[in-house]
UniProtKB/TrEMBL annotation:
<keyword id="KW-0732">Signal</keyword>
<dbReference type="InterPro" id="IPR026906">
    <property type="entry name" value="LRR_5"/>
</dbReference>
<keyword id="KW-0433">Leucine-rich repeat</keyword>
<dbReference type="Pfam" id="PF00560">
    <property type="entry name" value="LRR_1"/>
</dbReference>
<dbReference type="Pfam" id="PF13855">
    <property type="entry name" value="LRR_8"/>
</dbReference>
<keyword id="KW-0677">Repeat</keyword>
<dbReference type="InterPro" id="IPR001611">
    <property type="entry name" value="Leu-rich_rpt"/>
</dbReference>
<dbReference type="Pfam" id="PF13306">
    <property type="entry name" value="LRR_5"/>
</dbReference>
<protein>
    <submittedName>
        <fullName>Uncharacterized protein</fullName>
    </submittedName>
</protein>
<dbReference type="InterPro" id="IPR003591">
    <property type="entry name" value="Leu-rich_rpt_typical-subtyp"/>
</dbReference>
<dbReference type="InterPro" id="IPR032675">
    <property type="entry name" value="LRR_dom_sf"/>
</dbReference>
<dbReference type="InterPro" id="IPR050333">
    <property type="entry name" value="SLRP"/>
</dbReference>
<feature type="signal peptide">
    <location>
        <begin position="1"/>
        <end position="25"/>
    </location>
</feature>
C-alpha cells in the first residue's frame, strides 16, 4: 500500500514539474531570455547593451552586468521600450543622445552605479525622456550638486529614489522642476538641512528621510504629505507650523530612533493615524508649568533658519495644544522612552486609538478611570515600566470592550483591581510575568487583591505568568477555561496539583521551565 502510494505521487509530480519549468523552452538570444515583450539579460557578464534583441521589446533588464557607458545609439533598435533596468552595473555615463529613440520610456532603474562620474552628460540624456515616470538613482555617490544637475527639467517624474547617496542639504532648486513628484526616497544620505526644498512639489505624498543626520525638523508645513519617515536621525525637535488653518493630509509619521525629549508638535489639524515614536527620550513636562521652583527657567525655544531668518519658529514648551490633532490616531508607538505620566486629557484626545505600545518607559501608575482610553483599544503594552498601582472603575473597564492583548509584564505590581481582567470582555491574551500577583485559591472579596481568579476571564486563550512567585495552584484554578498557551516558568517550587489536567483539550503550549516540576501526566 505504502509503496503504491509513493509511485502514484511521483507520477503525479512529474507533469507538475514540467509545468513549473517552462523557461528553458523560450528562445535565448545573446544569452538573454525573451518572454513576451521582456528581455531578461541579468548577470550575463555583458559590457554593452545586446544589439540584436527583438525590436518589439518593451522591457529590458540588464542588472548585474559590467556596462560602463550607455552609448549614443545602443538603444536605437528598441523604440517600444518602456522599462529599462541597469541596476548594479559600473555605469558612469549615459551619452547625451542615448535615449533619442526611447520616447516611451517610463521607468528607468540606474541603482547602484557610478553616475557621479559622468552626471553632466547623463543629465542631458535624461532630459530627452518626455514620459519618464519612475527614476531610481540610488547608490550612485551623488552629492547635492550632481543630483540637482541630473534632475533638471525632469518634470514628468513621479517616483524618485535617491537613497544611499551623499546628499547633505536640500535647497530650493534641487527638486524645483519635479512638479509631479509623488514619492521621494532619500534614505541613507548625509542630510542635515532642508531649506525650502519642496515648494514646487505640491503632489508629494511619501517622503523617506530615514538614516540621515537631521538635528531637528522645524517649520514642517507640507500639508499634502501623507507619509513622512524621519526615523534614525538625531532629531531633538519636531515642530509643525502652527499658524496654518489647512488640514494636513499626514497619515503616518515615523520619528522613531531619534533624540526627541518632547512629544512632537504635530499639526493642529490632520488625519494622522500612525505615529511611531519608539526609541527616543520622550516625556511630558506639564508638571513644570507654573511651578515656582522653575520660574526663571526658559519656557520658550526659538529656532532660526540659517538663511536670512525667514522662518523663525518660537514654541512655548508647556503649551498643551502643541500635541496637535490626535483625533484620528489609531497606532501610537512609544516604546523605549521616558514617559512617566500622561498629561490631562491626552489619552482622551485619541478616540480611535487601537494600539498603544508603552513598553520600556517610566510609568508608575495607570489610572483607567481618569485617562478614559478609547473603546477601540485593541492592544495595550505597558510592559517593562515601574507600575505599582493600577486604578480602574468598573465603567472604565467595561468600556474597553475591544481590548484583546494586554501586556503588563516586568512591573512592580503586587496588587490589582480584583475585576481588572474579568470586565474586559474581549480579552484573549494577558502577560503578567515578573510581577508578584498570585492565582487565587479562594475567590477574593475586596476590590483590590494580591491574586487573580482567572476563571472569571471567559475568552482568555493565552496566559503568561512567568516569575510571579506563585507557589500553589489549586486543582480547580483553570477549570472551565480553554487556554491554548500557559506559561508558568520561573515560579520556583511551584505545586500545580491537578490544575493543568483541566486544560488538556485546548492547551498547545505549556511553559514549566525552572519550576522544579519533574513529571506531568496529562490526561486523567
Ligand atoms: C546577435 O549578435 C551576435 C553577435 O553580436 C551573433 O552572434 C548572433 O548570431 C546574433 N543573433 C541574431 C538572432 O541575430
Ligand atoms: C530646464 O531647466 C533650465 C534651468 O534649470 C531652464 O532654464 C530651462 O528653461 C528648462 N527647460 C525646460 C524645457 O523646462
Ligand atoms: C530605493 O532604493 C533602495 C536601494 O536601492 C531600496 O532599498 C529601496 O527600497 C528603494 N525605495 C523605494 C521606495 O523603492
Ligand atoms: C521608516 O524607514 C525605516 C528604515 O527604512 C523602516 O525600517 C521603517 O519601517 C519605516 N517606517 C514606516 C512607518 O514605514
Ligand atoms: C486662520 O484662521 C484665523 C481665524 O479663522 C485667521 O485669523 C487667520 O488669518 C488664518 N490664518 C491663515 C494663515 O490663513
Ligand atoms: C514643582 O517641582 C518640584 C520638583 O520637581 C515638585 O516636587 C513639586 O511637586 C512641583 N510643584 C507643583 C505645584 O507641581
Ligand atoms: C529669578 O531671577 C531673579 C533675577 O535674576 C532672581 O532675583 C530670583 O531670585 C530668581 N528666582 C528664582 C526662583 O530662582
Ligand atoms: C528671526 O530671529 C532673528 C534673531 O533674533 C531676527 O534677527 C530676525 O528678524 C527674526 N526673523 C523673523 C522673520 O522674525
Ligand atoms: C484615578 O482617577 C480618578 C478619576 O479622575 C480619581 O478619582 C482617582 O483618585 C485617581 N486615582 C489615583 C490613584 O490617582
Ligand atoms: C477593535 O480592534 C480591531 C483591531 O485594531 C479593529 O479592527 C476594530 O475596528 C476595533 N473595533 C472597534 C469597535 O473599535
Ligand atoms: C510582553 O512584553 C514582554 C517585554 O516587553 C515581552 O518579552 C513579551 O513577549 C510580551 N508578551 C507577549 C505575550 O507578547
Amino acid at each position: 500500500m505504502q509503496i503504491q502510494g509513493f509511485t502514484a505521487l511521483l507520477v503525479w509530480l512529474l507533469p507538475m514539474w514540467r509545468l513549473l519549468t517552462p523557461v528553458t523552452s523560450h528562445p535565448t538570444v545573446n544569452r538573454c531570455q525573451l518572454m513576451q515583450n521582456t528581455a531578461v539579460c541579468n548577470q550575463r557578464q555583458l559590457s554593452s547593451v545586446p544589439p540584436n534583441l527583438s525590436q518589439n521589446i518593451e522591457e529590458l533588464q540588464l542588472n548585474y552586468n559590467h556596462i560602463t557607458t550607455l552609448t549614443d545609439d545602443c538603444l536605437i533598435h528598441y523604440p517600444a521600450l518602456t522599462t529599462l533596468s541597469l541596476a548594479c552595473n559600473e555605469l558612469q555615463t549615459i551619452q547625451p543622445t542615448a535615449f533619442q529613440n526611447s520616447q516611451f520610456l517610463t521607468s528607468l532603474n540606474l541603482a547602484n552605479n557610478n553616475l557621479y562620474v559622468g552626471y553632466q552628460d547623463s543629465s542631458e540624456a535624461l532630459k530627452t525622456l518626455p514620459m519618464l515616470n519612475a527614476l531610481d538613482l540610488s547608490e550612485n555617490k551623488l552629492d547635492e550638486e550632481m543630483t540637482a544637475v541630473l534632475l533638471e527639467n525632469l518634470t514628468s517624474v513621479e517616483y524618485l529614489n535617491l537613497s544611499g547617496n551623499l546628499v547633505q542639504r536640500l535647497d530650493e532648486n534641487i527638486f524645483s522642476h519635479l512638479y509631479h513628484l509623488k514619492e521621494l526616497d532619500l534614505q541613507r544620505n548625509v542630510l542635515f538641512e532642508i531649506d525650502n526644498a519642496f515648494h514646487s512639489n505640491r503632489k508629494l505624498e511619501r517622503l523617506n528621510l530615514a538614516f540621515n543626520n537631521f538635528p531637528c525638523l522645524t517649520d514642517f508645513h507640507m500639508t499634502e504629505l501623507v507619509v513622512l519617515n524621519a526615523s534614525y536621525n538625531f532629531i531633538d525637535w519636531f515642530i509643525s507650523r502652527q499658524d496654518l488653518n489647512e488640514t494636513f493630509q499626514l497619515e503616518t509619521l515615523d520619528l522613531s530612533h531619534n533624540n526627541l525629549l518632547f512629544f512632537p508638535f504635530l499639526p493642529s489639524r490632520s488625519h494622522l493615524q500612525n505615529l511611531y515614536l519608539s526609541n527616543n527620550r520622550l516625556n511630558f513636562y506639564q508638571h513644570l508649568e507654573d511651578n515656582v521652583t522653575y520660574t526663571n527657567m526658559t519656557t520658550t525655544v526659538e529656532f532660526y533658519n540659517l538663511k536670512n531668518h525667514a522662518a523663525n519658529v518660537t514654541a512655548e514648551l508647556w503649551k498643551e495644544d502643541l500635541h496637535g490633532d490626535l483625533s484620528s490616531l489609531q497606532l501610537l508607538d512609544l516604546r523605549g522612552n521616558r514617559v512617566s505620566y500622561f498629561p490631562q486629557g491626552f489619552i482622551r484626545s485619541m478616540p480611535h486609538l487601537s494600539r498603544l505600545n508603552l513598553c520600556i518607559n517610566c510609568l508608575e501608575t495607570l489610572n483607567f478611570t481618569s485617562e478614559r482610553f478609547s473603546g477601540a483599544l485593541y492592544e495595550l503594552d505597558v510592559s517593562q515600566n515601574r507600575l505599582n498601582h493600577i486604578q480602574a472603575s468598573e465603567d472604565a473597564l467595561t468600556a474597553l470592550s475591544n481590548l484583546t492583548y494586554f501586556n503588563l509584564s516586568q512591573n512592580n505590581l503586587n496588587f490589582l483591581p480584583t475585576r481588572l481582567f474579568s470586565l474586559l470582555s474581549n480579552l484573549r491574551s494577558v502577560d503578567l510575568s515578573f510581577n508578584s500577583i498570585n492565582i487565587c485559591l479562594v475567590k477574593p472579596t475586596n476590590t483590590v487583591s494580591h491574586c487573580i481568579d482567572w476563571k472569571d476571564v471567559p475568552k482568555l486563550k493565552q496566559l503568561y505568568l512567568k516569575g510571579c512567585n506563585i507557589k500553589t495552584i489549586s486543582s480547580s484554578a483553570f477549570s472551565g477555561m480553554s487556554l491554548t498557551h500557559l506559561d508558568l516558568s520561573d515560579n520556583l517550587g511551584l505545586n500545580i496539583e491537578k490544575s493543568i489536567q483541566k486544560l488538556w483539550r485546548t492547551l498547545q503550549h505549556l511553559g514549566l521551565g525552572n519550576t522544579n516540576i519533574q513529571d506531568l501526566t496529562f490526561r486523567t
